[in-house]
Amino acid sequence: MAVAAAAAIVAGGSWHRAGAATVGAFAVLALPFFAGPAFCETYIKQFGERVHGVVADTGERRGVKRSKVLSVCRVVDTSGAVQDLSEQQNCHGQFKAGQHIILFKDPVGGLDPWVEGLPGERDLDVLALQITAGLLLVSGSALFYARQRRRSER
Questions:
Q1: Which of 1, 11, 67, 122 has a 20 to 30 A CA-CA distance from 46?
Q2: Whole-structure pTM over 0.90, yes or no?
Q3: Phi and psi of 34, rounded to 5°?
């Protein structure tokens, strides 16, 4: 948020390029919606430890405001550890009880595990990575354009 605000203030206020400031700020504000999940999935699938497991149970739970229903999965891995996974960890109700899955665990331990249904499936979400690259390109080029075409004070 601070980066988007700083970009808008500098491009719009100091350089007097309101259009470039608006485009750059909206692109920077949209980045977390695509970049965060895309980078997390890319990291965990490329560097994560693969652990085989079985879905023990699936279900739904209510969100904090009780208006949204969220899918949950209980997974048992080969070491016997039980993990409760949510939609943030790729459990969207697509698994059945007893289904074989692959867990990708963070080697550092900072991220929650990521679950995939088919063994050996390590394909990345290319669309999210392309959207992230596009947003970075749009925000960077908008601010570069604003910097090159500054208007002097009147």
A1: 1
A2: no
A3: -110, -40
